[in-house]
Design a protein that fits this description.
The protein is mainly alpha-helical. The protein has a domain of about 80 residues: Arc Repressor Mutant, subunit A. Helices cover about 50% and strands about 10% of the residues. A three-stranded antiparallel beta sheet has the order 1-3-2. The longest helix is centred in the N-terminal third of the chain and has 14 residues. GO terms for molecular function: DNA binding; DNA-binding transcription factor activity. This is DNA-binding transcriptional regulator, ArsR family. Keywords: DNA-binding, Transcription, Transcription regulation.
Length: about 130
């Protein structure tokens, strides 16, 4: 039995239908940069997984730096909820606060998260005959 060049030894006993496809899949996983990088990406995606967080992230991305009150007004989310979301974003390293006199403004600090947010837009209208 030929060993696939990227297959870890602990999986060498497993049979593959297409060795090249298995290697391509492993390259895709390893290309992220290892377990710590996978954890960081999973954290980014978890930040996007809740509608209010996503709303705040989109507003920060497109308007930041922005004050909590303005963010609450723009998003329709209460000041308290926006503050809680911002606390989570600061702890995750995705946002930062900047003091401007008595006003604290928040901005997005994670460029990879910003790239993901750039991909969030209204879906295209399905064309005639498209499968839904």
């Amino acid at each position: 039995m030929a060993r696939m060049h990227l297959l870890p030894a602990d999986r060498a006993h497993r049979k593959a239908i297409d060795d090249h496809t298995v290697c391509a899949a492993i390259e895709g996983i390893e290309g992220v940069g290892g377990p710590d990088a996978l954890d960081a990406w999973a954290e980014r995606f978890s930040l996007l997984s809740e509608p209010h967080r996503l709303t705040v992230l989109l507003a920060l991305h497109h308007a930041g730096p922005i004050a909590v009150t303005d963010l609450a007004t723009a998003t329709g989310i209460s000041d308290t909820a926006v503050s809680q979301i911002l606390r989570l974003l600061r702890v995750s390293g995705s946002a930062a606060a900047e003091k401007d006199g008595r006003i604290v403004r928040y901005r997005l600090t994670d460029p990879l998260l910003a790239t993901l947010l750039d991909g969030v837009h209204a879906p295209a209208t399905p064309s005639a005959g498209a499968v839904e």
